[in-house]
What we know:
Elements: E1 5-9, H1 14-25, E2 29-36, H2 42-55, E3 58-63, H3 65-81, H4 88-97, H5 99-107, E4 112-114, E5 119-124, E6 129-134, H6 151-154, E7 157-158, H7 166-175, H8 197-204, E8 212-215, E9 221-225, E10 248-253, E11 258-262, E12 268-279, E13 289-294, E14 302-308, E15 314-323, E16 330-334, E17 340-350
Parallel strand pairs: 1-2, 1-4, 2-3, 4-7, 8-11
Antiparallel strand pairs: 5-6, 8-9, 10-11, 12-15, 12-17, 13-14, 13-16, 14-15, 16-17
Helix pairs in contact: 1-2, 1-7, 3-4, 4-5
Amino acid sequence: xxxxxxxxAMSGGVDSSVTAAILKEQGHDVMGxxxxxxxxxxxxxxxxxxxxxxxxxxxxxxxxxxxxxxxxIDYFLSEYAAGRTPNPCVACNPNVKFGGLIAEAQKYxxxxxxxxxxxxxxxxxxxxxxxxxxxxxxxxxQAYALYRLTQQQLAHVMTPLGGWNKTDxxxxxxxxxxxxxxxxxxxxxxxxxxDDYKNYLVxxxxxxxxxxxxxxxxxxxxxxxxGIAFYTIGQRKGLGIAYPEPxxxxxxxxxxxxxxxxxxxxVFTKGLVANQLNWVSVADVTEPVEALAKIRYGAKEAKxxxxxNGDGTLKVLFPEMQRAVTPGQSVVFYEADGxxxxxxxxxxxxxx
Length: 352
């Protein structure tokens, strides 16, 4: 075996703890690094240190609070203010978790950064490119959240759990008596207490509580909202409107401070436009291509035609209408074998 010096991004959870344990058992020179990101990080740091001490490996804490504030929290708040629904993990991974931690790992002489992601990272000698592919656990497609990583970053990344599933990971944690073996899954947004993003928005951007009109597609006023940041595409509950048929949020207009509602049928769209593109398995897409597309982390992949616009944006058309295409979310494209072709940020839905 080729012994490597590896830094493990230890979050204090089960996945990264098992990653550190198995890499050490394989004979690698392993150390742990935990990111200090916000006031919510204290528990993660303590748990990670507990595991590192248990495994007998070095443990370091990287203070990324300012970087995280600038690249993730400020972005998160600004996107909601603009009527978009962001994915903070997608912003964090290239800018903080991998961008920052790879540099930190290299300070300690490490060649690689290992994480507990359920995804596969590998080098394809034929294309001379690093690839990301879906992991073996169908319930955890974490390749989706990694699509923005660069070739330079992927060259230093290891994901030992890519061929595992969560059940196996928990079993291995228990078998090794890891201190966090029974720790529950982490919350969805690590810096938002109790996953209550609406309360978080009010606390940090009170000006987002800005009432306006709820209108139909013809502009008729049907009710009032308390701020477009608190609504998302496809939402039905909480509109506070008495109407003969169910109404759903189909669009948010930040300029007019309006929530536009319509029927369930109007929530479905034929396609979308994406920008801020990042390609993984290929250097670029300049001609139309067929792929599988996922419009949010929890969505199913759908067949799609990718049509480059030649201006850094991409039109994506679906043979089957897609529900609740949401500006601000990421659309990620996959090849038939599960490799990530690339992805981008949804900037608008289209109906033609």
